[in-house]
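Retry 2 of 3 after timeout on previous attempt. Resubmitting structure tokens to design endpoint.
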């Protein structure tokens, strides 16, 4: 394969530069990753042994893709390149050298759950307040110290760090850090940050090891260099110190990980570290249409802090950027799903050609539900599907238990979450006792004092009283009111609210988003039954629907903008273009933060090859209150000549959504459910009767559906449903505790 002909002049110069340090700082889509890829292929075709090449990427996916491309040029030898993320490559090296730093070769890698459990135990042993010393918060502090290569000793002796911790009322973090490290060490385990930290330790304390790898890696390359942290910077600097054959590529306008310790300063350091440095500039974008490239340029211009560079493209003008306004987040979801469907059908595209990008994970809910309802397969990259997320499963388990206290899976999940001192052994005992005494677990739980003795028995009984209380409320409230009550009184909201880390906040937002979804369900005039029971059945159906993408089938990609870095898609939707959402409310306090947020928007725009859609909703629920949303300032920052405004549903009457649904029903599957309207208007003095004596055959009047006859009564547990055949709207199933009915017998 003649890869040289696949490069423009500047790209070629960068590929052919094989010796000495080089830096390629260039705009999005200008072929930085392509240059790295072909540069590796070129080195190998010039006789460099692939074992002597180290290439570091930001994600495993990126490494896989790069290897695959190189394989196309040079064949199987590509397998021998040292290529991967910093974490994967250096864990491999640490395994080989483990004994030098006192670790077993088969050391365990702790994931963040393992780390948090360990921290929780340490906090407990130290008798510290676990509300203050939240595992996430403590781990966040330790992690950021490690990424700056601050050891336990330095941490404890640094007056600034100590003052910070004192001010945050957490003076013992240094001590926890110390215990955490010694426990990990004793257990032969490293967490993610240790993989980089210990690599630095290895290279610092064992010059022979450093020397060995300096000899192995004749060539070092780093993609997405703008997002490396200090620890990563130092590792690459040490490795390249001997040969000085290091090439880094990046784009300062795409630096979006400052909150994880990435330091844009590394680019400036690089210039200082290598006076011989060759700098290559790539200015031509090959990815996107003119409209997209120019729109992206017009946005990033608003940032003060950036190396000036103008990106151009010879690609076609392309369609204008579509801005779509919706009335609510659910409508936004529907509009996105239907637009994808319509585009796919009319332009013979594949679902693989579409990506939906959002600022926060919680936004995936509305998108996922809309896609599921239209049977469009999708995959979430770098995260779980909304209903698979831990905190959502936790709250749903409470809701399920409220509706059905015999639900053992739900019971197991939440009996001790949030923590109420019911250990695993006790939990086990509950199940054994139930088996032995031939009772249901729920019966044992309600009488735990009698079965299990005092202290823990009381804790369990209190839990059962709480669930019964929830069930009582569920009898007389709609799904939203009871779910909100449960979120609060189960302790989940408090538990998550105290956790101020990025992950903690995401979890809190997810809970809020679940409640928003329930509120929308309750407010939906099409839903007759507003009970918690009905809501749970409704979501069980959507979450069951098999819209998970098969490995080979086509699918729409959903992800946060952060995980979209480096990727490209024909059609991109950036959703939730609203103030306080994007830019995020938390990024409005300083120019630096706002500029990082704007770089994030720049990354998002530049993922699109052909067509870009920006969508926003004019209202969203927040804790059950409908809140008006203002469209994002970022929309106004795009030069309007690249934009076409389009409006969603109700503003215009005949709208995209209806049109598309119409098309869809012509093309495939059954038409969407028709809403049969009733002409009936309830009299002003409508007053519901007591329905406790309602029976099949009775004639009734409903304030919305008008007159009808009860065809069947259905009682299950505490809930009674009436199936009524209405004269005008046909058969409806109503939950008696909510239905307002007048009896005409
Ligand atoms: N000279 C070229 N001729 C044709 N296509 C090219 C050329 N250079 C790059 N491309 C294509 O342009 C697209 C963008 O390239 P690439 O992903 O390497 O850009 P990048 O600078 O790494 O972008 P990002 O900043 O988003 O990571 C890819 O599809 C790539 O194959
Ligand atoms: Mg790239």
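Retry 2 succeeded. Sequence:
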């Amino acid at each position: 394969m003649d890869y040289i002909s696949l490069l423009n002049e500047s790209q070629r110069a960068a590929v052919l530069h094989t010796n000495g340090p080089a830096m390629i700082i260039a705009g999005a889509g200008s072929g930085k990753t392509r240059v790295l890829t072909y540069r590796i292929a070129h080195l190998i075709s010039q006789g460099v042994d692939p074992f002597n090449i180290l290439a570091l990427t930001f994600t495993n996916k990126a490494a896989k893709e790069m290897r695959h491309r190189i394989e196309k040029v040079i064949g199987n030898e590509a397998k021998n390149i040292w290529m991967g993320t910093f974490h994967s490559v250096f864990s491999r090296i640490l395994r080989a050298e483990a004994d030098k730093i006192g670790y077993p070769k088969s050391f365990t890698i702790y994931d963040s759950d393992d780390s948090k459990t360990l921290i929780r135990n340490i906090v407990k042993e130290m008798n510290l307040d676990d509300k203050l010393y939240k595992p996430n918060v403590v781990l966040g502090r330790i992690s950021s110290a490690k990424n700056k290569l601050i050891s336990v000793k330095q941490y404890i002796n640094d007056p600034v760090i100590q003052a910070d911790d004192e001010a945050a009322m957490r003076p013992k973090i240094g001590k926890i850090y110390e215990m955490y490290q010694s426990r990990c060490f004793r257990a032969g385990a490293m967490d993610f940050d240790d993989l980089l930290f210990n690599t630095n330790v290895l290279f610092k304390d064992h010059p022979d090891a450093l020397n060995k790898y300096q000899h192995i890696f004749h060539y070092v390359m780093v993609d997405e260099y703008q997002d490396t942290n200090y620890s990563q910077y130092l590792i690459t600097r040490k490795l390249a110190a001997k040969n000085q054959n290091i090439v880094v590529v990046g784009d300062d306008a795409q630096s979006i990980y400052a909150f994880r310790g990435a330091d844009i300063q590394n680019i400036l350091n690089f210039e200082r570290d290598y006076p011989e440095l060759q700098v290559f500039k790539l200015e031509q974008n090959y990815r996107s249409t003119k409209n997209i490239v120019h729109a992206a340029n017009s946005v990033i211009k608003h940032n003060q802090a950036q190396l000036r560079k103008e990106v151009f493209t010879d690609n076609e003008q392309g369609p204008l950027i579509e801005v779509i306004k919706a009335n609510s987040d659910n409508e936004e979801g529907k509009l996105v799903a239907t637009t994808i469907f319509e585009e796919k059908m009319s332009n013979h595209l594949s679902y693989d050609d579409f990506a939906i990008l959002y600022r926060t994970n919680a936004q995936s809910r509305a998108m996922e539900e809309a896609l599921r309802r239209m049977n469009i397969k999708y995959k979430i990259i770098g995260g779980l599907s909304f209903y698979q997320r831990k905190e959502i499963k936790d709250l749903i388990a409470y809701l399920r238990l409220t509706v059905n206290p015999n639900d053992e899976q739900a019971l197991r999940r939440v009996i001790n979450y949030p923590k109420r001192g019911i250990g695993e052994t006790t939990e086990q005992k509950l199940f054994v006792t139930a088996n032995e005494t031939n009772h249901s677990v729920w019966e044992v739980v309600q009488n735990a004092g009698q079965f299990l003795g005092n202290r823990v028995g009381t804790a369990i009984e209190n839990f059962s009283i709480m669930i019964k209380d929830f069930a009582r409320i569920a009898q007389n409230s709609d799904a939203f009111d009871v779910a909100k009550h449960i979120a609060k009184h189960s302790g989940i909201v408090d538990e998550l609210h105290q956790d101020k880390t990025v992950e903690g906040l995401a979890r809190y937002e997810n809970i809020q988003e679940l409640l928003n979804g329930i509120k929308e369900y309750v407010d939906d005039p099409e839903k007759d039954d507003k009970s918690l029971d009905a809501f749970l059945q409704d979501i069980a159906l959507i979450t069951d629907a098999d819209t998970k993408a098969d490995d080979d089938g086509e699918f729409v990609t959903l992800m946060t903008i952060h995980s979209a870095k480096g990727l490209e898609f024909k059609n991109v939707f950036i959703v939730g273009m609203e103030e306080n959402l994007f830019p995020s409310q938390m990024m409005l306090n300083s120019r630096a933060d706002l500029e990082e947020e704007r770089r994030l928007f720049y990354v998002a725009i530049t993922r699109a090859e052909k067509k870009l859609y920006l969508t926003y909703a004019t209202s969203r629920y927040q804790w059950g209150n409908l809140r008006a949303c203002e469209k994002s300032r970022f929309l106004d920052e795009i030069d309007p000549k690249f934009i076409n405004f389009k409006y969603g549903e109700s503003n215009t009457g005949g709208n995209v959504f209806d049109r598309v649904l119409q098309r869809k029903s012509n093309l495939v599957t059954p038409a969407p459910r028709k809403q049969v309207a009733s002409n009936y208007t309830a009299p002003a003095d409508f007053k519901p009767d007591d329905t406790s004596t309602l029976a099949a055959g009775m004639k009734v009047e409903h304030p919305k559906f008008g007159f009808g006859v009860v065809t069947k009564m259905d009682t299950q547990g505490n809930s009674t449903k009436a199936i009524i055949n209405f004269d005008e709207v046909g058969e409806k199933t109503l939950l008696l505790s909510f239905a307002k009915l007048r009896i005409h017998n």
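Attempt log closed. The longest strand covers residues 706-716.
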